[in-house]
From TrEMBL:
Gene3D superfamilies: 3.40.630.30. InterPro entries: Acyl_CoA_acyltransferase (IPR016181). This is GNAT superfamily N-acetyltransferase.
Length: 245
């Protein structure tokens, strides 16, 4: 397998997008994510949009954005996690500030090729891309895949679930740990999505009851208020940092 980026292989964009979406329908309504639509990223940072090829066949993508971290006003990774990384990257691009770090946004493996270690190839591709670009860090706001089965559990409690070998029970966190990634912090407000109760019904196919609701694909509950006709979803992510040496 080998890794290409879209600055040299722009023809790989459409096949890469066909590998799948990052989550359920409701996740497409995070307003910050609008800043990182694939075609926008390719226009601005094609070199950081990677595609893993098995021969000539795309089997995974790894999307990332460059940003400045640390900086005098950025001593810690953002509590807003995934959303925060996007905002920082856009701020730095608008301000013309040279990046010093790379933040992953999305790693997607073809559904019929999961479990083959391809995600590790994609992550190693991001590490190499960061090094080759003269960046000092690779950070990842990880969305634990297994957390969807425990939506009502706090992220701290979920992270305490370890296997006998000491690795996380979560398969996606475990992939990062095996590559030497270290835990930095929980990002408690990594993605925030709001909508009316009617919109949430459209997005999930379920009618929300007052209070917390587990929804398909959610790693946290949707808090519903009939009085305000409002549903609010706030999920936590886990900041990890990968070694570049």
């Amino acid at each position: 397998m080998h890794v290409q980026n879209l600055s040299t292989r722009p023809d790989l964009l459409e096949p890469a997008l066909r590998l799948g979406d990052i989550g359920s329908e409701f996740m497409q309504h995070d307003p910050v994510a609008i800043l990182t639509r694939a075609r926008r990223l390719v226009e601005r940072w094609p070199e950081f949009f990677l595609v893993v090829l098995d021969g000539d066949v795309p089997v995974a993508r790894a999307v990332s954005v460059p940003l400045t971290f640390p900086a005098p006003e950025r001593e810690h990774l953002p509590d807003h996690g995934w959303d925060g990384a996007i905002i920082w990257a856009v701020e730095d691009a608008l301000d013309g500030r040279p990046p010093t770090a790379l933040s992953a946004l999305d790693v997607q493996v073809a559904a019929d090729r999961r479990g083959e270690g391809i995600a590790a190839v994609a992550l190693n591709g991001l590490r190499e891309r960061a090094r080759d670009s003269g960046l000092d860090r690779l950070v990842v706001p990880v969305r634990p895949t297994g957390k969807a089965r425990h939506a009502m559990l706090s992220m701290d409690d979920y992270l305490s679930r370890r296997r006998e070998d000491g690795l996380s029970e979560d398969p996606w966190l475990r992939t990062h740990e095996r590559l030497g990634a270290r835990f930095v912090k929980v990002a408690p407000f990594a993605m925030t999505i709001t909508g009316t109760l009617e919109q949430w019904h459209e997005w999930t196919g379920s009618a929300l009851k007052p209070g917390p609701n587990a929804v398909e694909g959610g790693i946290a509950p949707v808090l519903a208020s009939p009085e305000q006709n409002l549903g609010v979803y706030v999920e936590a992510n886990v900041w990890l940092e990968h070694p570049l040496s």
